[in-house]
Each structure stands twice: as C-alpha cells, then as structure tokens.
Amino acid sequence: MSTMEQNQGLHTAGQNMSEELLHPRENEGFLLPESWQFDVGIESIVFKKAEEIDEWGNALSRYRVNMSDGTRLGMNVCEPKERATDIPIIETPAWFTNLHGFNEHSQRAFGAIGFPSILVGHVGEERDSYVREIGQFLFKPWKTVQEMRSISLARQAHNMLEILQYPNLGMELDKEYVFIHGNSRGAMVQFPFVFMARERGLDVTFAMPVAPCFAEGLGKETIQELRATPNKEVGNVARLAVRNLFDMAGTGASTVNLSPRSLAYEFAHTDSLLNGDAGRFAPHTPTDQDMLIVAYANDLAGQKEKWEALYEDHPGVYVRGVPGAHLSIADKRTKAYVMRTFDVIGQQLHDGAQPKDLDLSHIRRKLSIVQD
Questions:
Q1: 15: number of Cβ within 10 Å
Q2: What is the pLDDT of residue 117?
Q3: pLDDT value for 8
Q4: Among 15-19, 31-35, 295-299, which is the least confidently predicted range?
Q5: Above pLDDT 90, what percent of the chain?
Q6: For residues 276 and 279, what is the distance between their CA atoms, to the nearest angstrom?
Q7: Any residues with CB less than 8 A from the CB of 319 and at least 6 apart, and which?
Q8: Distance CA 103, CA 113 (A)
Q9: Concatenated DSSP letters of 313-329
Q10: Cβ partners under 8 Å of residue 244, min gap 6
Q11: How far is CA 110 from CA 37, 68, 267, 307, 331, in A?
Q12: Is it the case that residue 20 has pLDDT exceeding 60?
C-alpha cells in the first residue's frame, strides 16, 4: 500500500462556534471554546509495515500520520480474522509507553474477540533514526518547542477524531459509532474525546477509562493525598513482577520508547496530566454516555471519589473501585476483565443488537476477575 490520498475535507473542530462553553443540559448540543479548537488536519497517512498474521489471525499494520502542522503520529491498525462488528475500538497509550509491547498485545487481544482497532501514538512518540532526531533538535529547536507546547489531552483527542474521520484508513469501519478504551493517560484522553466526538456527529457507544488520573489538578491538598503513593506503588510493582513475570517478559520489553527524543516529549506531557484537564472535561460528557471508569483502591492519583462526584448526574457512567494501585494496569487479570467486558458487547453486536440497544448490565455485576 502506498501513501494514501490527501484528505481534501479536513475537519476543524469548532468552526463558526462561540467561545463560550455551554452545558448540554442547558442547550441542545455542545459548543467548543476557543482553547479546544484546533486548525490542524491530516495531510497524509503513510503505510509503513504489515506484521505477520498473529496466533489469533489478526492482521496488524503500522502507519505514520502526517499532520498539517508538521507533527507526525504513529498508528497501528488491527484487522481481526473474523469481525464481531464494524465498530472499531480506538486507543492511545499510557504515559511513557508506545505502540509496541503491552499496548500492541492488548490491541491484538481485542482482535481475538472480533473488534477492529486503531491505536494512535502521541506527539513525539513516532521514532526516527538517532542521527535525524538529534539533528532536528540541534538545527530546528523551535519546531521541537512548538510541538511540546501544543501537547494537551484535547489536542490528542482531536488528532484521534481526525484519524477516525479520514476518508481512507485502508479498511471499512462504521462511520457513526466508535468504542474507546485506554489506560492512565490513555484513559484521561477519553474525557475530551467523548465530548468532542458528539460535536462531530460521532457516537461513542461505550468508553472504558482504566485508572484515569487527577480529576482534580495537582495542588497543595492533592500533594498531601499523594504522600503515601510511592510506598504503595513499590509494593504493587513487586507483586506484579512475581505474579506476571513471564507474561510481562513477553510483552513489556518494548513497551517503553527509549528514544531520547521520545523521552523528552513524554516529560513534556507532565503538565497536561497534572493540571486537572481530564476532570474539567468530565462535566461536559453527554448525559446519555455509557462509560465504565476503573479506579484502583490504592491509586491516590486516581481520585475515585472525585470521579464519582463529577459523574453523579450521569446514569450511564459507573465508577468501579477495584483492588490494586496504578500499575495494576499491567496485571493480566485487569486485561482479562477488560477483554471480558468488551467480549460481552461484541457477542451482542454479532448477534444483531443495535449499538443503541446494548445491554451493559454486566459492567455493574460483582467482580470475580480483578481481585487482589
């Protein structure tokens, strides 16, 4: 496959919209404020590599997305051997992780239960040769600074929506509905995503943020709450290492992108993760949105009670507390729970259920998988 044709109909969020943000219960629909509008589209999507068919029969291909402002994003597209649905799952990686290792393995697992999926990397994660990366930093430092300053949860949500609405992704997907899943930073991006998707006429059928952080931004009170986190996380990492030693060895080695350029960009994400933006988007989630937020009991950055308060007026949003700390994301039992949650949905769609008529009662049933 060669370079895909340029998108002639670039989508710009918030065109001809007021700068004022209005609540959906007070108005019909959403209006994007100026700070959440991005005049950036896709110039091209370039095919890079097709991986070998995996054990489940998935066909995973890698792409580079060239944005109109010069930034580049990596992207994995996974086509299952047999689809349960044409509605894709879209994801984006957790902080300091990329499109390989754990995230790729999870994407392939979605294929195993019949879901086509798209995994979109963040700005700065798309690797180049060390020589070119260092050269660009030395001779075009302003470009690096500009890209780093553009980083935000809303910007990543915009990029993901641009990709979903690109006219030729190389496979046929449902144009009206989408699922979204992600861990940590990938969970936080879901809040602007579901808000902005509705504005574009796209329905997020079901969202599953796992361990989203900082519903309330980092401040004096939050810092006091976090004092106990390091000890809890160290103990949790030790338990994870023993429990999942062989599984993590098979998928974890390439999860972190060690490119110096990529590491610098990951540090540049810090403000967007700690400033409370995820929580600011939450109240503007459509009131009929179906969502399962997984919050670990010892993940103080997860702020379970604050998410519950933000969504108390959203009957379709369920904040589920589970044992563990933030890095329990990597526990194979968490992944099993995620796959089971989507598998029930996939079976319904395969049997002819319409997206609006899904029975999601299983997300509130007593847990038997994720236990400490």
A1: 9
A2: 97
A3: 30
A4: 15-19
A5: 56
A6: 5
A7: 293, 295, 304, 307, 308, 311
A8: 16
A9: T-TTEEEEEESS-GGGG
A10: 330, 331, 332
A11: 31, 31, 29, 26, 16
A12: no
pLDDT of residue 21: 33
What would the DSSP string read from start to end of 177-195? Answer: EEEEEEETHHHHTHHHHHH
Q: What is the pLDDT of residue 219?
A: 65
Contact 169/77 with Cβ under 8 angstroms? yes
Q: What is the pLDDT of residue 368?
A: 63
Q: Report the pLDDT value the prediction gives residue 144, as an integer from 0 to 100.
A: 80
CA dihedral of residues 266, 267, 268, 270 (deg, nearest 10): 100
Q: In 155-249, where do the E strands start and end?
A: 177-183, 203-210
Lowest mean pLDDT, pick from 55-59, 146-150, 354-358: 146-150
Buried b (16+ CB within 10 A) or exposed e, 232-269: bbeebeeebeeebeebbeebbebbbbebebbeebbebb
Query: If you average pLDDT over every residue of the chain, what do you get?
Result: 83
Helices and strands in the chain, H and E counts:
14, 9
**Rounded CA separation 257/253 (Å):** 10
- Cβ burial 300-335 (10 Å sphere, 16+ → b, else e): bbbbbebbbebbeebebbbbbbbebbbbbbbbebbb
